[in-house]
Amino acid sequence: AFFASKVEHESKHCNGKGFQRPGSSAFDRVYTANQNCGHTYPTFLAMLWCAGLLCSPAPAAFAGLMYLFVRQKYFVGYLGERTQSTPGYLFGKRIILFLFLMSVAGILNYYLIFFFGSDFEMYIKTITNAISPLLLIP
């Protein structure tokens, strides 16, 4: 909702109608940042859902909240210079990688239980609980 309101606000301050606003770099930046955030949202939801379901819900929820904060930072950084958005982008990639690795660990644990009868769920939850605070390091 914040991103959409920013796009609407910039759209009202530009002269012209529709999305063809030549020379409006402020609108272009806001619109592009909104599109970038919208394109990564389905991937984030899929990774969050898989990590929480297959591995551990608490670290996945923490990583999800961090990701939403990082996308906000990315969006606000994109409104300034494009180089200001780079830390938010890289931080977001790291969180998506963490969620992906949690999903893979959950899938591997399922197959280890299915084929060998070995359950490593407690070890995986301990490791993810220990690693999730490291996501706060920029």
TrEMBL record:
One of its GO terms (molecular function) is enzyme activator activity. The chain crosses the membrane at residues 46-70, 91-113. It is found in: Endoplasmic reticulum membrane; Nucleus membrane. GO terms for biological process: leukotriene biosynthetic process. It is a multi-pass membrane protein. It comes from the Eukaryota. GO terms for cellular component: endoplasmic reticulum membrane; nuclear membrane. It holds the Pfam family MAPEG. Keywords: Endoplasmic reticulum, Leukotriene biosynthesis, Membrane, Nucleus, Transmembrane, Transmembrane helix. Its main location: endoplasmic reticulum. Required for leukotriene biosynthesis by ALOX5 (5-lipoxygenase). Anchors ALOX5 to the membrane. Binds arachidonic acid, and could play an essential role in the transfer of arachidonic acid to ALOX5. Binds to MK-886, a compound that blocks the biosynthesis of leukotrienes. Homotrimer. Interacts with LTC4S and ALOX5. This is Arachidonate 5-lipoxygenase-activating protein. It comes from Eudyptes filholi.
